[in-house]
Amino acid sequence: MGEVILTMKGIDKSFPGVHALKGVDLEVRKGEVLALMGENGAGKSTLMKVLTGIYSCDAGEITYEGRTVEFQNPKEAQDAGIAIVHQELNMMNHLTVAQNIFIGREFMNGKIIDDKKMREEAGKLFEKLNIYIDPAETMSNLTVGKQQMCEIAKAISKDVKLIVFDEPSAALTETEIAELFKIIRDLRERQLGIVYISHRMDEIKVITDRVTVMRDGEYVGTLITEQCTKDDIINMMVGRTIYETPKEKSNVPADAPVVLKVENLNAGNMVQDISFELRKGEILGFSGLMGAGRTETARALFGADKKESGSVYVNGQQVTISSPQDAIAVGIGYLSEDRKRYGLVLDKTVAENNSMSTLERFCRGLFINRQQEEETAQEYVDKLKTKTPTVLTKVISLSGGNQQKVVIGKWLTRDCDILIFDEPTRGIDVGAKSEIYHLMNELVKQGKSIIMISSEMTEILRMSDRIIVMCEGRKTGDIAIEDASSEKIMYAATLRNE
Prior knowledge:
single chain; Rossmann fold; 2 domains; alpha/beta; 6-stranded mixed beta sheet; about 25% strand
C-alpha cells in the first residue's frame, strides 16, 4: 500500500429527524482495496455522498491528494479523479455501449457526434480491462454483469485516481464476480485507491486489504483483513455475535399437511415439467446457478408470467392462477428479487407501501382510513425493526435492507399462508439478514409455509428444511436437509440435460 490519497476526519451530517453521520473517519491509500462495511443504515452511502459532493457535511474535513477539498457537486469530484460505480446501474438502455460510456463527453467530428471514434476508444478501454464486449451493442441486450463492466469502464475512462464500488457483485454470477476481481486487482496494481462496499463476507476476505466498519452513523474501527476473522468484522458491525451454522434437521413434522402442490409446470425454456410439494410450516429452499429457472418458476406459479401447462393445488384444492391477483386470493404472496421494480412504489410512504396489497381493508367508501393505515404500518415497522424516521417517510430514502423489510411487511399485512421469498437477503447486511432469518423461522412456527429462492449456499443450508435444485429449467434434485451438503447441491445444480 502506498501513500494516503484520501482522509475524511470527523465527518458529521444530519437530516430532519436523523443524525446520519457522527464524527466519522476514513482513510484510503493508493494501491489498496479498503472495505467499507456496516449494517444497512449505518451511513456508508451517506459518507460517500458527502465525499462526492451530493451532500455537504455539517462538520469535519476532507483531504484529497494532500489538499483540503469540499466538492460542491459530483462533477467536481469526477473532475478531481473520484468515481463511483453504483449498485443501481445508471445506464441509458436504448443507447449503444460506447454512447453510454462517453455520454456527456462525446467525441465530435465538426458538429456531428463521432460514433466510430467512441467505439474505438471504448474498445481500447475494454482491452485494457480484458473485457469482451462489443462497443456497438445496445446496452439493453447485455446481461447485468456486462452492464456492470461497462459502468466500470465508464468510471476509469475519466482518468480516475480513487474509485468507489458500491455493492458491485450483488447481481453478478460467480464467473462475473471472478472477472470483477481481476479488474479490481489490476486497478490496485496501477496504484488506484479503491473503496469496496459489500455485505458479502467471503468477498471481503478475498479482495480487500483493510476493513473500515461503521455502525449507527459512527466510525467503529479499521482492521487489516488478513489479521482478522469474519466473526471479528461481524461483531464490530452489529455489536453482537451472529451465528451462521447450517440446519441439521427439518423442523417440519412428518405428518404436516401439504399446503401447495405443483404438478408438471411448464413456462418456456426456463420452466420445464416442474413438480414439487410444500408442507405446512416448511421452508423449501430453491437452489441452482444463475439462469437455472428458479425465479421463472416462482413467477409462473404466482401468475406474474403466463404458464403453458401444469396444475396447482392449494390445501388439496386445484386452483387456477392466471394473474398475481389470483395467487393473492388463494393465499400466496411473492417477495420479488427486484424489490424496487416489482415490490415497492419508491415515491410513496412506508405506510402506503405497507397497505398496497390489502388496500380494501383500509377503505371506507371512497376514502382511505389513513390513521388505521399508519397504525398498521407502525406495527410492522416495530416487528421488523425497520429503520425509518416515521411511517410517513418515502421509501426511496430508506436503505436497501430497510426497503426489503417494507416489502416483507406488506405481505405480512396481507396475512398470506404461503410466501415466496425470492433472494430475501440480497444486498442486505448480516445484522438485517439475521433479523429476516429470525422472522422467517417465526412465520413457519405460526404455520406459514415459505418457498425461499437463494443464490447463497450458506443461506440455503442454514434455513431450508428441504432443498429443490434446478439446472437449465429443470428440477435436478430434491434433498432433505439432513442429507444436504454444498457438494451435493452443486452436483445437482450442474446436472445439465444433454
